[in-house]
Specification:
With 161 residues, the chain is α+β, with helices and mostly antiparallel strands. It is built from 5 helices and 8 strands; from the N terminus they run H-H-E-E-E-E-H-E-E-H-H-E-E. Keywords: Membrane, Transmembrane, Transmembrane helix.
Length: 161
C-alpha cells in the first residue's frame, strides 16, 4: 500500500487537491446563498386580529435593511370590473393612528417594523365613494393590497401583494 502511494503520489495529490477545491467551492456557494438570502428585500402583508373586515391590515418589513414605503394600493375585483385605489391619496381623516406613517401610508420602515393601515372596513370606506363598505366588499370577488417601496440596500423598487 505504501509503495503504491509512493509511486502514485502525484495523482493522489492532484485528486485530493481537486476534492479540496470542490469542498471550498461548496462552502463558498453556501456562504454566498446565505448572504443573498439575508439581503433580499421582503415585505409581508398580513391580517391581524381575525379574518373579518374588522381585522387590521398590517404591512411588515421583514428585510435586514430599511424599506421606504412609497404607496399602498387597494384592488377590488368584481365580476364585471376591477377598481384600483391608492391609499396614499385618500382622505383618512377619520382614522386616528398611533403612528403618523399609518395616516400617510408612506414612510420608512426599519427592519422588523410594521405599518398598521387600519381595518379592512376602514380601508374600504376611505376608497369607496358611495354606498356601504360592507356591501361593496360583499359584491367584490377579490380584495388585494399591494405595497410598493424602495429598498435602501439595492436602491430598487420592491413590492408585495
Amino acid at each position: 500500500m505504501w509503495f503504491w502511494l509512493k509511486e502514485n503520489h502525484a495523482i493522489v495529490s492532484a485528486l485530493s487537491s481537486l476534492a479540496m477545491l470542490g469542498v471550498w467551492m461548496l462552502y463558498l456557494h453556501l456562504f454566498y446563498s446565505s448572504y443573498r438570502h439575508q439581503i433580499r428585500p421582503k415585505i409581508l402583508i398580513t391580517r391581524g386580529g381575525g379574518d373579518t373586515v374588522a381585522a387590521r391590515c398590517i404591512v411588515t418589513n421583514m428585510s435586514s435593511e430599511t424599506i421606504f414605503v412609497q404607496a399602498v394600493f387597494l384592488r377590488l375585483s368584481y365580476s364585471d370590473r376591477e377598481q384600483v385605489h391608492s391609499l396614499s391619496e385618500t382622505d383618512r381623516a377619520g382614522f386616528s393612528p398611533s403612528d403618523r406613517r399609518s395616516e400617510l401610508v408612506q414612510g420608512p420602515l426599519r427592519s422588523g417594523d410594521f405599518l398598521d393601515l387600519g381595518s379592512f372596513e376602514d380601508l374600504l370606506s376611505s376608497v369607496i365613494e358611495t354606498g356601504d363598505a360592507r356591501q361593496e366588499l360583499a359584491a367584490a370577488h377579490r380584495l388585494s393590497v399591494l405595497a410598493v417601496g424602495s429598498y435602501t440596500w439595492h436602491d430598487r423598487v420592491v413590492a408585495a401583494e
